[in-house]
Design goal:
Helices cover 38% and strands 17% of the residues. The chain is of the alpha/beta class. Strand 6, helix 6 and strand 7 form a beta-alpha-beta unit.
Length: 306
């Protein structure tokens, strides 16, 4: 089978070498397609691909239609909103992600961002400490649990909410369960967001939730840009000069936020959550193993378009 590794943002050489070794040992051919500039180039490249490994690359309905031999797409990472699941399902293409492979990298970044904002982005002004304060974790999956464990190790109190987990499951993961989202925001000095971008969550975090946070609170978003109501965020920051926002998914109105609020707002130049050598390798190798297993035995454990 021809496996196309299509990445505008290439994997590390070590990851590519490992991916190739796994796939070739299973009898498949790996073709690299890296650093392409236009979406049309991806559309052309998938014409004879039977499997596709991507990172943040957009697998649109047009890509699916052009890939007439395609049987499986694996997103090397947890999020998969860059893949048109409806188009893939209609075409009989299996879509998978690689949950957990980037989790530690994202969790470490979330904690680092909290400290960065508490210390006024490392400027000379007097900052604050996080020990003894309370963090609320919105979505208590792989990343959320790791954030909670690291926060607790730093002496923080940890609360969490997750509509897909019971209170007992959240408690077993080391956090105090909260069932009401407004209660989470109102009762935490920090809220770390780990929800996917879905029709139910897009724009769901806005003025009302943000302004309910305690004095001096920090909202941390290492999830998706789309889950934040950016107009509501701007209004909240205008009315509450004590609040701060930090993210590794740059808002569309970031220039305005920076001009208005200075050190109270920070966004990384690009999404940084999975940008570690370890996560890069882990996610790539997981994607290769899942493709090999799919063609060998039909394994679909991490399929997301069921």
């Amino acid at each position: 089978m021809k496996v196309l590794l299509a990445t505008q943002k290439p994997f590390a050489a070590k990851a590519v070498s490992g991916i190739r070794e796994i796939l070739e040992a299973a009898g498949h051919e790996l073709v690299l397609f890296e650093k392409y500039a236009e979406q049309s180039e991806l559309v052309a490249a998938v014409a004879d691909a039977e499997a596709l490994i991507i990172r943040s690359d957009k697998v649109t309905a047009e890509v699916i239609a052009a890939a007439t031999k395609l049987k499986i797409v694996v997103r090397a990472g947890a999020g998969y909103d860059n893949v048109d699941l409806e188009a893939a399902t209609k075409a009989g293409v299996v879509v998978m992600n690689t949950p957990g492979q980037n989790s530690n990298a994202v969790a470490e970044l979330a904690i680092a961002m909290m400290i960065f904002m508490c210390r006024n982005q490392f400027t000379p002004a007097t900052g604050t400490e996080i020990e003894g304060r309370t963090i609320g974790i919105q979505a208590f999956g792989n990343v959320g649990r790791l954030v909670g464990a690291k926060a607790k190790a730093l002496g923080m109190n940890v609360k969490a909410i997750d509509p897909f987990l019971t209170a007992e499951q959240i408690a077993a993961g080391g956090a105090e369960p909260v069932t009401d989202l407004k209660e989470l925001y109102a009762g935490c000095d920090f809220v770390s967001v780990h929800i996917p971008a879905t029709p139910q969550t897009i724009g769901s975090i806005g003025y009302e939730l943000i302004t309910s946070m305690p004095k001096g609170a920090v909202l941390v978003n290492t999830a998706r840009k789309e889950v934040i109501d950016e107009a509501g965020l701007e209004k909240a920051l205008e009315e509450r000069p004590d609040l701060k926002y930090v993210t590794d998914v740059m808002p569309d109105n970031y220039a305005v936020l920076q001009e208005k609020f200075g050190l109270r707002v920070f966004a990384t130049p690009k999404k940084m959550g999975a940008q570690t050598a370890e996560a890069n390798v882990n996610a790539g190798l997981a994607a290769a193993r899942q493709i090999a297993a799919f063609f060998a035995t039909g394994e679909r454990k991490f399929q997301v378009n069921k």
